[in-house]
Every structure is written in C-alpha cells, then in structure tokens.
Design brief:
The structure is a single chain. By secondary structure, the chain is of the alpha/beta class. Helices cover about 30% and strands about 15% of the residues. Strand 12 and strand 13 form a beta hairpin. The radius of gyration is 23 Å and the shape is globular. It starts with 6 loop residues before the first helix and ends with a helix.
Length: about 475
C-alpha cells in the first residue's frame, strides 16, 4: 500500500536527492499523458472517445522511451498514478490512494518504467494532487482512505476567484475539496507523498492546483516529498503567482505563457518579453527555476489558436532556450493543434514520426542545448524590437522573429563570440556561417524563422542532429 512507510522506504528517499533544483535546471522535460502516449501491445488504432480511457500504459511508455530521448529530452512528466474513479484517464480523480491505476498497469510496471527511464538517463517527474478527489458528490465512502465528511471542506463552489478564502475552501469543478486543516488529512497527504516518491524513486513532483490550498501546507508537503517540486498556479498575474515560490522550489511560469501567446501568436511587441522578465526578476525568488512552456494539457494548443508553423517554431525555440526549465507537451513535435480539453489530449501512437519537421527541429535545439549548457549562464539581451528578440547565454546565441516579414539586424555579440570567430546557425550549418566582425554578426531572419548560432568549433556540429542536417543539404 502506498501509505505505509517502512524504514527501508524512508531511507531510500536519499537515493533520489539528485532531483534538486540544480539537477532540474539542466533538464528538458517531455510531458506525457500516460493514457495517450503508447499502448502495451503497440497497437495504433484510434480512440473512439477522448473523454474516456484510450489505452496508454506504463509499459507502452517504457517501450517507447527512445522516441523521447531521440529528440534529446532527458526527463519525463507523467500523469498521476493513483486509482481513479470512472473515466478519470487523466489521473486527477483519485478514488483509492492506496492503489496504482490499473488502466495504466501494475505497481511493478510503474517501477519498471522508472528504472528503465533512469537507465537511459531520463529523470521522472510524477503529477500529484492534494487539493481534491474524484467527483463523488457527498458520498465520501467511495474514497479510500479519506472517506469521512470531516476530511473535506463544507460543500460550496468556487465562483469568485478574487476571494482567496473561497478559492482555498470551495470546490473546483465540483470536486470534493480536501481539508488540510484536519490533522489526519494533513498528515496522511504528507506521508503519502513521502512514500510515493521513495517507493517508485521519482526524481521530482508536479503539483496540481497550488492556489486552491493554503500556501503553508505546500512547505510541509514539499519537505515530505524530499525532491524538486513544480507547482501549477494557473494565473497570469506575477503578483499572485510569485509568493508561492516561498513555499515550493518552483512554479510553472504562467505569466510568461500568456506573454508567449501574445508575442509569438498575436504578433505583439517583443518588448513584452523583456518587460516580463524584468517584472519577474523583482518578484520571484528564482526565475531560472520556473517552468517555461508553450503547450500543456489544460489549454488549447498554440496551433489551435494561430495555425502558424513559423510562429510555433519560434515560440518553442524561445521556451527551450530562454530562462527557466523547459517543459514540452507531447505531440507538439508533430505540430498538434487540438482545442480545449479533451481535444488537446490526442493519442500520439499513430503519429510517432521521427522524421517529421517538428521532431527534427526539436532534436537540433536539444542537441545544441546539451552541447553548450546555457542554463548555467546569464541571459544577456542583444536586440529587442517590435519583431525581434535576440539574446545569448554564454556562447549560445538565439535570434527570434514573430513576423512573416523578413528581418535583418546586426547585434553586438560581445560576451558570446570573439572577433574573427566563425559562427554557424545550427539549422543550416553548412550554408549559414559567418565571421564576427567588429564585435557584430549580421542576422537575417526570413519569414518568421529562428536561428541559433554557435562557434563553428562546437561539439554540436559533430552531433547526429547536425550530421543529418548536413547530409540532407547535399542530397
């Protein structure tokens, strides 16, 4: 059972202490909905109803980890693993906290997934919920072991999101709201997360619905987990989100998420990025630990809104290379364009095309990122204009456009490259090289493209991603 803590299990927490903030800053995380990624038998038939289970499993994910590592990702975020009520394919409707969701597989299957991921150098972050349980109305006997009315707040629905007391004590989407003020509930949830992490050797946790629970609880919960925590505070107001980082190691950068949509999708000024970072630096404890993303399972996909491949690629380039820990939603490499839940939760098994434009594009960025490790270096803005945002992190130079019109500019590259040094664009390494002259390079962005320049001596240009690009250019 997941809640029983033995001395051996408690001691094993020490084996996952590598999952601290520094460890996760060096990772790129691929988000998977376990039910939608791959089936145990490898079948690729479609799913009749995206509102219900489609058949993805732990074993299916384990069998297809190479699809993920082939793009250069070295961490995965998987769905909540507990037994769920009814059609809870997503994992957020906990029914029996003591069991693993049988639709995904057994406890041994989950252990095998994590062990295999670790053997491939892939860290595993598990999604967890401590705010609510399955939609059972008032029949709390359906939940185990939190099966008494006193384990929950009195029934009310969140209607006024400006009323924090209501947000913390009422139901989200009519899901019974756990009462962390109850001593049994509070201790059970902390024991549960400690045992979950130690039993399955997870390297980090993603925590659902952060603002719906009093902030002080998260300090205790994170300490009990003993690993890195990435919290979800679905709000675009930096003033609202930032204080929660006093209680968790990190949060998803939802304020920047909305800026990404505005800038790359709607074509608003790139100065919005500059201003957003400036605002966040003064309010977050650690901006570089925030989760930066373009798509996830709670929002209609970028491509659903904008249907613009160039803009999408620029947004992804930014999210994979700018300040923060990159989170990448499965299917984005195949340019998925699903709408609101559940249509943004498509099955992937029929589209695992490792030669697609998106897959190869992401593979190059991740290979360059690993070669130069920009996460450990200051981000220095080199050019900000209405349609241009350029920056370097050490000798890793990124130039982005959000306009279909061609852009040309000559940024100073001091701090990145030396005069006379040859630099090349990772996307066209044999045809887009130049020498640094007078401390500047000439950057030409055609039709909204992005570029990443590295020294021509970079180990990246010996990588499989670069060699494949070179072969394709000479065909």
């Amino acid at each position: 059972m997941l809640s029983k803590i033995t001395l051996a299990a408690a001691a094993s927490v020490a084996t996952v202490q590598a999952g601290d903030t520094a460890f996760w800053k060096a990772r790129t995380i691929y988000q998977v909905l376990t039910d939608r990624f791959a089936r145990t038998d490898g079948s690729t038939q479609g799913c009749a109803d995206l509102h219900n289970y489609c058949g993805g499993t732990f074993k299916g994910l384990e069998n297809h980890l190479d699809y993920i590592t082939g793009m250069g990702f070295d961490a995965i975020w998987i769905s909540p693993v507990v037994d769920n009520l009814g059609e809870g394919y997503h994992g957020y409707w906990a029914k029996n906290w003591e069991k693993v969701n049988a639709h995904f597989g057994s406890e041994d299957d989950l252990k095998s997934l994590v062990n295999t991921a670790h053997s491939k150098g892939v860290a595993v972050m598990v999604d967890v919920v401590a705010n609510h349980v399955a939609p059972i109305g008032e029949d709390f006997s359906q939940i185990y072991p939190l099966n008494r009315a006193e384990h929950y707040h009195s029934t009310c629905q969140i209607q006024n999101w400006s009323n924090q007391s209501e947000v913390e004590n009422c139901r989200l989407a009519d899901l019974p709201d756990l009462n962390q003020g109850n001593s049994y509930v509070r201790q059970y949830l902390k024991d549960w997360i400690k045992n979950l992490v130690s039993t399955y050797k997870f390297d980090g946790i993603r925590i659902d619905t952060i603002p719906e629970v009093p902030a002080d609880f998260w300090s205790e919960y994170g300490q009990a987990a003993g690993v890195f925590q990435m919290g979800e505070c679905f709000n675009g107001d930096t003033n609202y989100v930032a204080p929660y980082q006093q209680h968790l190691t990190a949060l998803f950068n939802y304020p920047m998420y909305f800026t990404i949509k505005d800038v790359f999708g709607s074509g608003q000024s790139m100065y919005n990025i500059k201003n957003r970072f400036a605002e966040e630096d003064g309010k977050f404890k650690d901006v570089d630990a925030l989760g930066i993303f373009v798509d996830n399972h709670d929002n209609a996909r970028f491509q659903n809104y904008f249907h613009n491949d160039a803009a999408f690629k620029s947004a992804l380039t930014f999210a994979l290379t700018a300040r923060g820990i990159p989170f990448f939603y499965y299917g984005s490499e195949q340019f998925y364009a699903g709408g609101n839940d559940p249509y943004n939760r498509e099955t992937l098994w029929q589209d695992m095309d490792t030669n697609s434009e998106g897959y190869q594009y992401i593979k190059k960025i991740n290979a360059a990122r690993k070669a130069h490790q920009p996460w450990g270096k200051e981000q220095q803005e080199k050019w900000v204009a209405q349609n241009i945002y350029a920056y370097n992190r050490g000798d890793f130079f990124v130039a982005l456009s959000n306009s279909p019109n061609d852009q040309q500019f000559q940024p100073a590259v001091f701090g990145a490259f030396k005069d006379g040094e040859t630099v090349c664009n990772i996307f066209f390494p044999t045809t887009d090289c130049q020498q640094v002259q007078g401390g500047k390079i000439n950057v030409y962005l055609a039709h909204g493209e992005s570029k990443i320049y590295l020294p021509s001596t970079s180990s990246y240009f010996q990588s499989d991603a670069a060699k494949q690009e070179q072969v394709q250019q000479f065909l």
